[in-house]
Amino acid sequence: AQKITQTQPGMFVQEKEAVTLDCTYDTSDPSYGLFWYKQPSSGEMIFLIYQGSYDQQNATEGRYSLNFQKARKSANLVISASQLGDSAMYFCAMREEYGNKLVFGAGTILRVKS
Amino acid sequence: EAQVTQNPRYLITVTGKKLTVTCSQNMNHEYMSWYRQDPGLGLRQIYYSMNVEVTDKGDVPEGYKVSRKEKRNFPLILESPSPNQTSLYFCASSPSGRNTEAFFGQGTRLTVV
Q1: Residue B87: is its pLDDT beyond 80?
Q2: Which of A102, A111, B4, B97 fits as disulfide partner to B105, beta carbons 3.0 to 4.6 Å?
């Protein structure tokens, strides 16, 4: 069964510094997708970045990049040049090829300090 | 504008009083699902639907019902709410496929007293 683990309940980062949010996953399906979502205090879920299991390169979207290490089954989110508006809950999620179900980790709360 | 619309955003109700949370999407997505979010547990899937008239249980279906009579609508029904169903609920839709992002509604914060 698919499973996502986020081991950091909370993180602090200084404004303008980079931060890495950890995510490990478990699946027996060779074809899957990995997603990161941001949830600000207002509650909505905002899609950030996607990585496919067969993608050769790490995904990047602006200040977000995904450090994908397939052999270690990890998909860490890297946020560069942190901003105060990055303070939020961050969820890692996975979807297998034929399941359609999105499985989420417990989330990491990120606080950016000025 | 492509969106998933949930209503209501906030709801306080009493134990045992039936309620429905509506969800509608305008993107013609086949796949829709309901999640509940609880502290320390992330989002857990309640029910999902692969298409019209096709629904199935997720990980935490007890105490919930759903229906999919039209492609755009996927209401969540709590026939007899209990305090342990106090949670933040999200409806999501997506096209089929592992590489497709899910679009989420704004969330419904439900309190059962």
Answers
A1: yes
A2: B4
